[in-house]
Amino acid sequence: MTYFETTEWLYTQLPVYQLQGSSAYKPGLEKISAFMDYLGNPHLDFKSIHVAGTNGKGSTSHMIASALQEVGYKVGLYTSPHLIDFSERIKLNGTAIPRPFVIDFVQSHKTYFLTAQLSFFEITVGMSYAYFSAEKVDYAVVEVGLGGRLDATNIIVPTCSVITNIGLDHTQYLGTTLAEIASEKGGIIKPNIPVVIGEKQAETTAVFTEISTRQQAALLFSEEIEMPVIFSDLKGVYQEKNRRTAYAVLRLLLDESSLEKSLKGFEKVIQNTGLRGRWEKLGDKPTIIADVTHNKDGFDQVIPVLKKQSCQKMHIVLGFVKEKEIESILSQLPTEAKYYACAANSARSLSSTILSEMMEKIRLDVRSYDSVKEAFESAKSNASEEDFIYVGGSTFVIAEIL
To answer: Do 294 and 395 touch, CB atoms closer than 8 A?
Structure first.
């Protein structure tokens, strides 16, 4: 098979959460553990950093990877979902996994995938661990897919565990309170392995303290450490917490000299890792920002920034997936902006008609569009050079923009 045929086979033959949502969510470690045995347990061949959290885990993972690369380490990076191409999920020092490796891996093990009834996510996790083992990485930075305790990534024994923050997202799987969700994400905390918590929250601190005490794992809240001034090419205001979290992790891993050298990595995250879609500027005159923020906790940080933008008129292109509870997001949006409701080309996308009706009910100036492209083009044609355009709400929307 060609690379395109291989990835299409993965998307169509196997349950893919990114495309199908809840019907593809298969929690549990039994199948991934058996898959690792079948592959010769490649996940035991390298050091790793395991990163969970409601928001910021992708950015934090990329920051840590970039910083370790600056020290001279060979760094694997596993993240999800991808924006444009499958290979973005698995990188080595910022370079995507070679297409021949993907083709050969799927061809060699296709029968096992089907017999064992593996999910798309379990296969990609196994592929990443096999690739990192084959390439003899010094460190692999591994982002949790969903939750933590039952996530397929949770078979590694990391050098450090990281939980960026806890918010009310994926409540149908993880629990309906912050404490319940913290308990699920806290499932990545391993015996005698230090854990860094990125955000101290009243509802979750006791949960993490109890789990880390039980596991005899050193617990560090990143808010409690002193941090030097760190510049980064990731410009969203919400990245400040992620920088602090990443720095706390690096302090645990590196000696003083290496730590100093690693700080350069914060300035070169995009260059070193290829990260996209995090408050990414796509144009000037008008200013165009593309941002993958997609849940309430994320928008709680983004919306105040939107309201502070200095511009003549604001244009906001939004699309969401069906599973998100978006009423509380919509109620906070700037009332003076012009809105463009759209639906990405995905079965999981919320209808643009439904979205625009919800926005009309709270008296926002909104028009509905059949596609992301139409909405974006309309925003650009309506905007003057002094205007500001924000595109967000879903990774699918940003993928189509990029």
So the answer is: yes
